[in-house]
Amino acid sequence: MKGLIVDSNKCFALKENLTRPVAELDEVLVKVKSASVNPFDEESAAGRFDAYFAEYKVDKEVQSGLEFSGIVESDGQKFKRGDKVFGYVNMITGWKSHAEYLAINENQMALMPNNLTFPQAAAIPLGSLTTLVALQDVGRLKAGMKLLIIGAAGGLGIQGIQIGKLLGGHVTAIAGNSQTEFLRPYGADIVHDYNQVSIKDISDTFDLILDLSNAQNLEDMKKRLTPKGMFIPAEPTQENGGESEDPQVGYLMVMEGNFEKLSRIANWVSEGKLRAVIDKEFHFSDYLQAFSRLKEKGRRGRIILNW
Questions:
Q1: What is the pTM of this model?
Q2: Dist CA 9 CA 65 (whole Å)
Q3: What residues have CB less than 8 Å from 297, skipping those under 6 apart?
Q4: Model pLDDT for residues 185-219, shown as the tens digit of each residue
Q5: How far is it between the farthest Cα atoms of the chain?
Q6: pLDDT tens for each residue of 99-112
Q7: Domain limits of the chain?
Q8: Does residue 52 sit in helix, strand or coil?
């Protein structure tokens, strides 16, 4: 089996003859066709999660890759051999998706929408699931409420715009240069270029603010919230209030896929209500180019690796 490993210099390397996973109870074996690249992967290579891997006694060779699409290779309770699936592995304990095969709990994935290719399906689960949880479960977004998404052109942001509209919200997006015409077809009612408009210049107030840039502080955000509004940073820090118990700050952590929610997302995709967005595709052998793209500004959607 081939897969990306982290060498002694904390750099990625594509290696052959890795140990193929064995499906345990409630798991199936999946042959990976496509997988996404996102900041978690670089953070994992840099050792950010080593303490968690050690705590949970995780010693798997492949430590990167969360989203995937592929074909089931063993029969389970929910899925059978030959099923096309997409999902989101457990961030810490799961077999990661930057490999030719992974073993995964059946509750962490769903059947792939028939109208998607494997690369498109791999661009959907993490962003859609995370933003669905953020907007629906944490932020309690309802029809007519005003939503602000900061960092709206990335993989999570584009899904957040679409899901925000599906839940009935009025969506304002903040993104980089030349993103206005790109984001409007996905449902953004208003788009601000952060190079031209500072968030401090926006006079409107919002029922929910989702900061995917993780660059805002709580003091500034509170000035832009309605009295019962909520601010949700992508990652909790002292500056953004995520480590506090402030009732206007929502804590966002989606550790793994969810069968029911991913099935709902798949139905939206099948109905044409939710679209996958790919920035660029690379073959796994060109993984260095994919990670270089991750560092570039102006990305639109997910970066995908294909076998």
A1: 0.94
A2: 19
A3: 176
A4: 999 999 999 888 888 888 899 999 999 998 899 99
A5: 57
A6: 999 999 999 999 99
A7: 3-124+276-306, 127-233
A8: helix
Beta partners for residue 302, in sequence order: 278
Find out whether 99 and 5 touch, Cβ atoms under 8 Å.
no
Report the CATH architecture of 3-124+276-306. Answer: Alpha-Beta Complex (3.90)
Q: Do 232 and 134 touch, CB atoms closer than 8 A?
A: yes
Which of 227, 224, 36 is closest to 129 using CA atoms? Answer: 36
Q: Which of 203, 157, 160, 201 lies closest to 176, judged by CA?
A: 157
Per-residue tokens: 42: 């670089």
Contacts 24+ apart (CB under 8 A), 140-143: 140/230, 141/167, 141/168, 141/169, 141/207, 141/208, 142/167, 142/168, 142/169, 143/167, 143/168, 143/169
> What CATH number does the domain located at 127-233 have?
3.40.50.720
**Could you tell me the two tokens for 152?**
């709206």
